[in-house]
Amino acid sequence: MLFALCLILAFGLVFNAVQANSIVAATEGAWGWNRYAVGVGLVLLTAPVIFGGVRSVARVAEWLVPVMALIYLLMAFYVLAIHAAELPGLVALIVKSALGLEQAAGGVAGYAVSQAMMLGIKRGLFSNEAGMGSAPNAAATATSKHPASQGAIQMFGVFIDTMVVCTATAAIILLSGVHDQGLSGVALTQKAVESQFGPIGVSFLAVAMFLFAFSSILGNYAYAEGNVEFIRNNKRALLGFRLVVLAMVMFGALASLPLVWDMADLAMGLMALINLVAIVLLSRYFFTVLGDYQRQLKAGVAAPEFKADQYPELAGKVEKGVW
């Protein structure tokens, strides 16, 4: 129950505030839209979906998000292609910055590296959710013959998010030469895209950010709703939760960037702390499952199937009908 409460706090409330803040920053930077108006518009778009009346908005967002993601990656690859000669310098800059080589001369390398690592861990955790324990909420809805194969798919998702999408964004920013202008967040990415593609790139990024963030708001709500129903499955609790979600969307639209990120860092830390302890306690079952998967692969089984009743140590640990 404690983990469910933390997930509701993180995904249902705080993360939705972060996503709303990102949408406001993107539209404000691209077109100068008023943040109050954007916040109200987000609430009006979100409310019909989470209250179950209008699913068409969610379906349109789900269809457009992969298309926008593909276009964004193509833009990043184009930037890499036209700046191919600068890639060795880019890699050198990343390595020097990560290891604090420039700061070492001033005697502050340790602090600089620790700060860079801390910020990287926090933003990476928000991006790919690795170690937070939230992804199983989605993975559990999949139909898989073996838990290890589903785990491999989840690992691949982390790789794509971090090593492809995030690296592409970093490349655009660093190759544009705007990373030392004191900008941060969406404004930094928009400035970098503008330097490569002009105003149309900024507009595209704002639309893409809206779709990514809005679909995340809906996905976050779905995560949290299941945990609300797990704790107290009644209409009054669900109604109250939905109203608080809408309030947090509006709050995020109006709040400052540092405030929403500080809240997100705290919520992520609580989830990760509980989940990592649980992972350690459950690790012996993990090795049992992984060993079963590897034995079947070595035996030539193309699609391994897990049967929990073959392992007495899992008796009472796995619900019947799951595996």
Automatic annotation (TrEMBL):
This is Na+/alanine symporter. Keywords: Cell inner membrane, Cell membrane, Membrane, Signal, Symport, Transmembrane, Transmembrane helix, Transport. Belongs to the alanine or glycine:cation symporter (AGCS) (TC 2.A.25) family. It is a multi-pass membrane protein. GO terms for molecular function: amino acid:sodium symporter activity. The keyword Hydrolase does not apply. It is found in: Cell inner membrane; Cell membrane. Residues 1-20 form the signal peptide. The keyword Signal applies. Its main location: membrane.
